[in-house]
Amino acid sequence: MTVTAGSTASAPSLADQAYQDLEDKLVRLELAPGAVVSEGQLIQITGLGRTPVREAMQRLAQQELFRVMPRRGLLVTPVSLPDILHVLEARKPLERVIVYRAALNARDEQRSALAAIARELAIAHDDFEYFIRLDMALGKLLDACSGNAYASASAAPLRSHCRRFWYFHRPRMQLSDAISAQSKMARLVARRDTVGAQRASDGVIAVIERLAASIDRFG
Fold first, then answer.
1. Which residues have a Cβ under 8 Å from the Cβ of 128 and sit 6 or more positions away?
2. Is 8 exposed, middle or buried (0-12, 13-18, 19+ CB in 10 A)?
3. Paired sense of beta strands 66-69 and 36-37, if any
4. CA 97 from centroid of its chain's CA atoms
5. Of 3, 16, 35, 37, which residue is 20 to 30 A from 114 by alpha carbon distance?
6. How far apart are CA 78 and CA 20, in angstroms?
7. CB within 8 A of 95, min separation 6: which ones?
8. Phi and psi (nearest 5°) for 196?
């Protein structure tokens, strides 16, 4: 399924390409949490030059997906419960702003796209990778609808951390709960229900909080 936000995006720069490639590998655990990697390894992985890779490294370090280790390289940030709880604490109010503005501002074609994502989510069932693609499409569409670039830029790396947490704890994740919460939020934004959309956004965060609590309880 292809979902667009109704605008034409310019081609990403080499630095953006490097960032997108490395962010995807970090989220999908292809760059394993706790591993130490070098700049040279990342250049080889992306197939891009030193300058764009270095810019991407710095951006990912600012977002706490890498940690710089002087004279040793980069540590792929471990996945931890305290970190994800801090991520959720920061993400929750940002998502409330985004969905509120999206429900107010979305154009008709964007509302149709939101409703389409809600329908696709409803039939995602146990397809984790498909759910992840829909989750990413929904986030991008909500950002475009909201028109608040500051909130969207702040929320983006927090969403990456949450997806990474899902991948890391995939066997424990109640995918049906996540699908239901996301689908409900998309439908309510499409219906211009600002209050309901914010409550549904809180429900999306609550699904991740419950996953974290179950891991904390049972180890």
1. 170, 173, 175
2. exposed
3. unpaired
4. 16
5. 16
6. 19
7. 155, 201, 204, 205
8. -65, -35
Closest Cα to residue 83, out of 36, 34, 132?
A: 34
Q: For residue 216, what pLDDT is reported?
A: 74
The CA–CA distances, whole Å, from 26 to 16, 64, 65, 134 equal 15, 11, 7, 19
Sign of the CA dihedral 119, 120, 121, 125? positive
Q: How large is the greatest C-alpha to C-alpha distance in the chain, in angstroms?
A: 53
> Which amino acid appears at position 147 of this protein?
G
Buried/exposed 119-158: b ≥16 CB within 10 Å, e otherwise:
ebbeebeeeeebbbebbbbbbbbbbbbbebeebbebbebb
34 touches 78 (CB < 8 A): yes
Check if the beta carbon of residue 14 is closer than 8 Å to that of residue 49.
yes
Give the domains, in start order, of the chain with CATH numbers. Answer: 14-76 (1.10.10.10), 81-218 (1.20.120.530)
pLDDT tens per residue, range 158-207: 999 999 999 999 999 999 999 999 999 999 999 999 999 999 999 999 99
